[in-house]
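Researcher: Hi, I'm a grad student and pretty new to this. My advisor asked me to get structures for two proteins we've been looking at. I'm not sure of the right format, so I'll just paste the first sequence and hope you can take it from there.
Model: That works fine. Here's the first sequence with its structure tokens right after it:
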Amino acid sequence: MFARTNLPEWAEFVVGGHEIRQGSFRESAEELARQKAIDPAAIERVKDDLDALDARVLPGFLAGSGSVVEKMADRWRDDVSSAKDMIDAIQADLRAFAQDNDLAHVIVVNLMSTEPVCSYFDNGILAQLSQEEREKRLEEWTRWEAFSQLLRSAAPPVVSASTLYAAAALELGCDFINFTPSLGATPPAFEELAKLKNARFMGNDGKTGETLMKSVLAPMFAHRNLNVMSWVGHNIFGNRDGVVLDDPRNKATKVASKNHLLTQILGYEPQTLVSIEYIKSLGDWKTAWDHIHFEGFLGTPMTLQFTWQGCDSLLAAPLVLDLARLTELARRKNFKGKMDFLACFFKSPIGVDEQGFVRQFEQLERWIHAMEE
């Protein structure tokens, strides 16, 4: 399908970034190799490339990341505290990265640990405010000028790091991809900014495992008119994401992202339960057990169960690589704004109502074919 599409080659990309933990790419790869996820011989073949990547990784920011992430951090930027100063510092690093590597364009991908829900825009908090204050926050949510003023006037920041990175990137005309369920560039104000700066963005939360299965199976029940009474999903894994999601505040953001699509696909709300548990011994391998209780003809109760087992990092990595190449293709084709044709990559695609994977992928196919014309 992509054979006639002029996707950028990997030799055209330079990788760098921000990190809040000590360590190296080679150490991370070797950790996966010990867990039987990567062939050690593959690491040996690219060890020099991995070492070169380390030189392009700088300390990042922790704003609103949650106490668990803060305990993991040992190389973050602690010399600035206001949102304005953080955005300025991120932009300085982005400019230097582009200049030092002679880059035509920069794509920023958020791969940070899941952040707690942003309370500033939480519906429960908004309901407690006066009408005047609610209207003010609605304007901040939808208009870039108001959102920008909010960011730069707040110290400490009222939003988390993912949103600060989104603002920093898009203001410079860089592209922004949010592969996490965190707020990122979700506020509609960012679409106004992206179009103003001729930039592109999309998110949220890479669709790699159990939710991918949900987005494939749920349309089957809807199309066969099989009434889903309940859908229970139990997830266990042991990597650092598991550590972070063991905190109820961070977990709430992830559960909301995994749980919402069934109602949108089915057209009604079955009873659902999503659990996410940290099991240290599993490392990067994750398992999901799902139990679907549904009614067949004459209301006869039936059950479908499945088990999904996979390596978390290796399920996510190719999606990140594809997103980078497709985003750069969109830039070369002069597309700007929200890239809704990338919805099939995400659990909670921004501003996209269609949640069925096949139909989402058909949207990507239509866009790819249009790029060939």
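Researcher: Oh nice, that was easy. Here's the second one.
Model: And its structure:
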Amino acid sequence: MKKRRIGAKLFYWGMLIIPIIQFCVFYIGVNFNSVLLSFKEYPLDGSGYRWLSGAELFSNYAKFFGDVGRDIVLKYCFENSFLVWLFTVILITPVSILFSYYIYKKRPMSGFFKVMLFLPTIIPGIVMVLIYLFFVDGGIPILLDKWFDVRVLGLLYNPDSAMWMIILFLMLTGFGTGMLLYTGAMSRIDVSLIESSQLDGANAWNEIWHIVLPSIYPTFTMQMVFGIAAFFTSQAALYSFYGVGASPQIYTIGYWMFLKVANSGEGNYSEYPYASAAGVVFTLIAAPVTLTIKYLLEKFGPKE
């Protein structure tokens, strides 16, 4: 029995040791190092990182806060990140719930909608980007010219329409994950509750509001909490469409942060400390906002 217990413990820790090491290195270690980097600098002569001291200790933070007030690119970043969050999290969530309810009730063509809405999640992202790119930048201008004699630039390369085309792409391809989560949550609803409400004369809207929404509310809360974090991290597929050459007018915070790191290379890591300081600031903003929203949603939300 003692050998069995030892063997069971060895097996248990053997299964856990790899994910624990991965978590310690790639989450705790990376984030801790990012905080340290925010108090360092990397001279252009390539001599390596060195600690800031004295009045310069918070110079990376001071530079970032100064840029927030005067850098037009950061202004675009916050505006575009808000638009992406508004349309892909706030506005698309009710639509996802309604589609999920339609599929859950097995209405006509619900199987077709289930496949079509989940298809963008199955197809590789770069394939969806190429299909959308050829349609928006090639197909639509040709059709407008042929049918209406209207000549327009490619909508993704027109600064006036590019951001809206990106948002449309994110909305069209963003139903799959939410649909799976919500339909999975709805499938756990006790059938007797639905039948009882129908015997009491409840219509579809009563059923959604009084039974379905309270039952899937934990999943809804999780989606909203993740959406707050995505505000500061989402690249909005800009790298897939433009690489590192997107117009500053359509930058998001996530894409801007990515470029700060991606454009540092060939032994030049001078932007890393600045990007680390910006990341720490965003974390200090996002963490309390996320926890507050989670608390409010759980406290005042409907009960099952």
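Researcher: Is there anything I should tell my advisor about the second?
Model: You could mention this: The beta strands are 40-41, 50-51.
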